């Protein structure tokens, strides 16, 4: 039963919840989003990139990295379209974006069709993430993740409109990166992280990781 397993992972002992126990509720709201950001950005980019090395060495297969340094994104379009979770981007582009854009182009023209297709793609992504969150946390949906992705659909569409009206901004690269990461962090802390924080996701993930490492160690050295 997923709910029983989740309860078991949460009650594995005080040492596994020590970070939450040390932090006051007011401090958790500041510290945990930073922790989640570090876990999402650094390990995913590095570890999944490193996972391509054995495939190349032992199988002669060149696997594409699923993340391309998202921490240097210069815009939301750059982040979502070219750097973050490229496997999902590769799926959603032909499955949602291209068909919607093609259908809408005949009705409203090319430029508005790009906006509609962008919004539709983020909406589908948001619904997919809500389903994933339900299976992960076994909690009724709060639609925060869906709202997060729909919001970014509007923000990314706004970027497109701004480029069409005034052209690409000539900001220094560092400023563009800082602005992009600030928007990502603020919106994630507002909508993406709270369901994970309420569900003690970091405790569950740490327990699952220890369990997996223990099983791997047993199988290797038994």
UniProtKB/TrEMBL annotation:
Any one cellular-component term (Gene Ontology): membrane
Transmembrane region(s): 34-59, 143-162, 174-193
Listed GO MF terms: O-acyltransferase activity
Keywords, ordered alphabetically: Acyltransferase, Membrane, Transferase, Transmembrane, Transmembrane helix
Topology within the bilayer: Multi-pass membrane protein
Keyword Membrane among record annotations: yes
Keyword Transcription: no
InterPro entries, A to Z: Wax_synthase, Wax_synthase_dom
Chain ranges of the Wax synthase domain: 65-149
GO biological process: lipid metabolic process
Pfam families on file: MBOAT_2
Subcellular location: Membrane
Family named by the database record: Belongs to the wax synthase family.
Protein name as catalogued: Wax synthase domain-containing protein
Organism: Nymphaea colorata (pocket water lily)
